[in-house]
Description:
mainly alpha
Amino acid sequence: MWTTEPAANGPAFSHTLPGRVFARKPLTVIPMSDPLLTVLLCALAYVAGSVLFALEICKLWKLPDPRALGSGNPGATNVYRNGGWLPAALTLILDAAKGFVPVWLAHAAGLSILAQAMVALCAVTGHMVPLFYRFKGGKGVATALGSGLALAPLTTLLLAAIWILVMWRWRISALASLIAIVSGPVISALIEPDTLPLFGLLAILIVVRHRNNLIRLAQGRETRL
């Protein structure tokens, strides 16, 4: 889509990538160097990502440890197996929020797309190797969803649609997550190419974290919902 910007000799036109249509304009400049602010937000993202809400919500609902079910992943799927849709939905929202908020802050501070992508990766890494749980975490799909919504909304919404379709057809959460995340680099390259490195790295991280699920899928032993 086309946007106008004031210029000395009249309106100037510039092209905006489709996925950035929904992005907020940077807020007032924070009096801090970009490298320092990037490091601080990366640290914040990692610490936020390190909170495994699946465990805390199961404690609140007095449910069994989700790591004892299914694939052992502390995520919304196992919370659903434990206690139904309400605690699972809350887990999904909070796990997504811990990825969304740090990236949104990075965007609001006017940091570059690369810096925002670094913040997103730190949030997802925090969920996978959390500081507060002996560095044993989850798969990072929900946190990647939240980070993606803040940085690349169109790509992320399309990936969410793919996840829903695959989940509806086969009822296997791991399969839906793998197909969606592997589609990420292709879709981002087509509609939001500035975020391709982020989705490429996320695909590698999440596929590696699903390696046991891949073995069970190949053997036909992966648990259905």
